Amino acid sequence: MPSKKSNPDRAEILQGTLDLLILTTLKWGPQHGYALSLAIRANSGDYLLVETGSLYPALHRLERQGWVASEWKLTEANQRAKFYRLTATGKKRVIAEQSRWKQLVEAMAGVLNPQARES
Q: pTM of the predicted model, to two decimals?
C-alpha cells in the first residue's frame, strides 16, 4: 500500500464511510482489494487512503452481510487474487447508503454554514 507520508493532509476514513466507498466503487465492476484501494485513492484526488488493515475486514464484513460476493481469479499481471463484486442486495444497499450520505452532507453543510440555509 502507498505510504501516507506523500500527503500529510490526507483524510482517515471512518468505518461507515469505507463501506459506502467500497460499495460505490464496486458499482463499476468486480475488483480485487488492491485495485479497490487504488480506485478510491485516485477518484478522491489522492486524498483518501484505504489501509489494508481497514479494507479487508470491511470487505469480509460486507461479504458476510451478503452485499458483496467474491471469487478467486487471475489479475492482469497473471497473479491469483480474490475479486469482489456487488450482489443484487448490495446494489440496493449502495443506493440506500448514497441517499443517506447525501442527507448527512446536507445536514453537515447546514451546521457548518447556517447562513447559506437561510438564503
A: 0.81
Measured CA distances, 65 to 5, 39, 68, 105 (Å): 34, 23, 8, 25
* CA–CA separation, 24 and 40 (whole Å): 9
Residue 3 in domain = no
Contacts of 40 (CB under 8 A, 6+ apart): 21, 22, 25, 48, 50
Identify whether 43 is part of a domain: yes
CATH code, domain with 105: 1.10.10.10
Residue 51: half-sphere exposure toward Cβ, Cα within 13 Å: 10
Range(s) of the domain holding residue 15: 8-112
Number of domains in the chain: 1
pLDDT digits (tens, 9 = 90+) for 21-48: 999 999 999 999 999 999 999 999 999 9
H and E: helices and strands count for the chain:
5, 3
User: Which residue do the cell numbers 492482469 mark?
Assistant: 76
